Amino acid sequence: MFSEMDFLLYDEYEDEEAEDRSFDSKLRNDVVRQVSNDARSRKSINAVDVNSRNANGNTALMLAVRSRDLGTCQFLLEQGANPNVLRSQSSMVTALSMANKLYNTQFIRSLLRHGAHFSCSQGLEVLEKAVSCSMYNDIITGETKLSQIKSRQNFETALIVANRHGREDLVTRLIQNKVSLGLSLMHTDSLDLIRKIISAGTDVNFTDFSGRTALHKAALSGRLDIVQLLVEAKAHIDAVDQEGNTPLLLSIPNSKETISYFIGKSCNINCVNSKGEAPLFKLVKYGFLEQIKELLKKGVYINCVNSSRENALHMAIKEDKYEIAECLIENKIDVNILTFDGLSALLLAIDKGSDIFVNLLLKAGADVNCKDSRGNCALIKAISVNYKLARNDSEKLKNIKIAEALIKAGAEVNCIDSDSIPAIGSLLRK
């Protein structure tokens, strides 16, 4: 039975927004009306329309809750209705907010089982009811379902909501009943709550749908304090997610302190993810020289290559990191490794028109007569190919200086360019 109060309590939602009589609004109303009619008839619902909102912002699911039609509500949820759709961008009202006004708690139970979360209007009140009615399994089922949907992986669990509101009574009961402790560990940024979850015997290496652990999440957000707490609790420091990322890889570039902490803890510094990224590559890209030095002291494999067969020196040149290039050369990186496109570090520096990198590489013993995949040697690229592509006199002058440096370093001047012109002849014509 529903009391008169049930109906009165809906007044705050009924006229929240004045109905727009425009043609667009009529179409929206028609779509939601059709979904509602199909649901009441238990007909299959078009997935595109099931979460549509009418002119007042109501979905068919909200209308089913409002009309106290539990069967239709459950049918819509089974058809994929999203219980977390908001009535409007300025409102936090969801179907769960509406269900809070009903005395029949089965509506709340059904919505929770299908992933309704408590980060909504009146969410704390609903959570109180759910706990008082021991809906623990329903909450766990729904939150597990939410965690497996990629677009909704970042959400507040019931435990996090209770903790955010300072409700120790709810926190205690949820922990005692082991309600989504692993998920809460992954999603909370509260040190105090993390300590409580760990103390409850939760597996700190719990993984989500993407294979990430709480340590991955803490590293990604640059939270050194949480990282330290989890490592002390025996979190796997080299855990790998589905994309091959370790916590160290995810900590770059979010926190230099966290990066240094992982390196100091003797984690796997030679790990490579599915994109071919190694810690050394990422540190070079973001210009973290001190952390690169820490890796080198720990014995990182300096000549690792990515999926394009570039090494860290190629990356340093591409990112204009001169000091890092110097550091890598001092630590004996191979200056003559060729990419799949046949580019050595020297050829790459020539393509960039960077005389300072060219001079650095020549001093390091780079092969001055190396050729790219088209058979163009370093000298030809400088004085023929790149000279023609130069956009102004300044760029042309740089290429001439590079050519002079190559010749002084012993470049073969009788090599032939793409037009069968002696390279030295090309230089003289400039």
UniProtKB/TrEMBL annotation:
Superkingdom in the source lineage: Eukaryota
SMART domains in alphabetical order: ANK
Chain positions of ANK repeats: 56-88, 210-242, 341-373
Keywords: ANK repeat, Repeat
Protein name: Uncharacterized protein
Organism field: Biomphalaria glabrata (Bloodfluke planorb)
Gene: 106069643
